[in-house]
Specification:
Elements: H1 13-18, H2 25-50, H3 53-69, H4 74-87, H5 92-105, H6 109-130, H7 140-224, H8 231-260, H9 278-292, E1 297-302, H10 310-330, E2 336-343, E3 346-353, H11 372-382, E4 390-391, E5 397-398
Parallel strand pairs: 1-2
Antiparallel strand pairs: 2-3, 3-5, 4-5
Length: about 400
Amino acid sequence: MDAAETPRTGPSFRFRLAAASPWPRRRIVGEAVLTPVLSGIAGILRTAETGSLVQGGALALVVAVLSLARRALPASVLLAASALAGTFPGTFVLLVCAGWSAGSRIERPARALAAFTAGFVLHLVAGVASAPDEDLGLSALVTVVLTGGPFLVLAVVPGFAARYRAQRHALLDALRRHNAQLVRERTMVARQARLLERQRIAQDMHDSLGHQLALIAVHTGALEVDPELNGRQREGVGVLREASRSAMLELREAVGILRNDAEMSGPGPQGAGPSSDRAAVSVDELVASSRAAGATVELHRSGAERPLTPAVDRAAYRIAQEGLTNAHKHAPGAPITVALRYEPDSLVVEVANGPVPAGVPAAPPAISGQQGLTGLRERARLVGGMVHTGPTPGGGFRL
């Protein structure tokens, strides 16, 4: 039974022939050229040998059928071609092609060995049966060599070459699949390591910063109701308490983002994450908090406001927040202007402060981690934006 592209349950002859189809265009062109060549050689040589056009045509037809079936039925075609080559020398090219197909398409080595051994026996028997009477007197060894030698050259050698080629291609395919699997596994391991590290960072932030912010909120809440404070002091303590509360909410949001491994890149459902209108609404809260702390802050809006993705809104909010924080730290008492400009293809957030007014006492050196602007540049880059900073002609600073 053939073992080329067929299941082991013994399919019918029709299904075996269908196992090699559909043929790609390249194979169709190759068969359209090879089949006439094989049948033509066999038919012409047979006609020249016998002088009978009928015999030549019949042999050419048989060779054409075997040539077309050699891919679906490699073992059967090998046996038939071996018998024909032993009887009709003009079919030697068909034997070469049948040996090549059998070597590459019969998967099990035992079946391949059995097929080539049976083909050798058939070739030997057919050759001895068709040999002239004067050649039958030769010794058995000489007969085997003269009859079986061409089979080894025409069928076995191409079979070994085709089998080596098929096994080499199968090995290369297996190596490629294995390499792709290793790459996928390495990516999964790296992603898992990142997730674990992000979870560890989130837990550390929650345990350390969350505790400190909670203490600040509790103490400022207790201080706010102290009867010894005047209205101005109580208002300042209220600003501190509200700032600590906002910091707690933002810390919780950051921890959630770290644990979820990614920020949402598009609008989400109601109640999922921070407000999607943060750049339009929460900047007002930032300005109000700064005004409550005694700063002179103006807010300007221009352009047609439109909904933005949460990532862009969050970036705009952070830029405004960082700009106000830097102005309070480095230029206390200076007037501040916050501008939101909705342009056709972008949103521009600008925070500018003027020079420190004369007579305002110098503030102590501000505590800075030197990472605020760097973080803003990275945040803006992730949403397709950029950050520009620098002094203004009047002695202030603009972000």
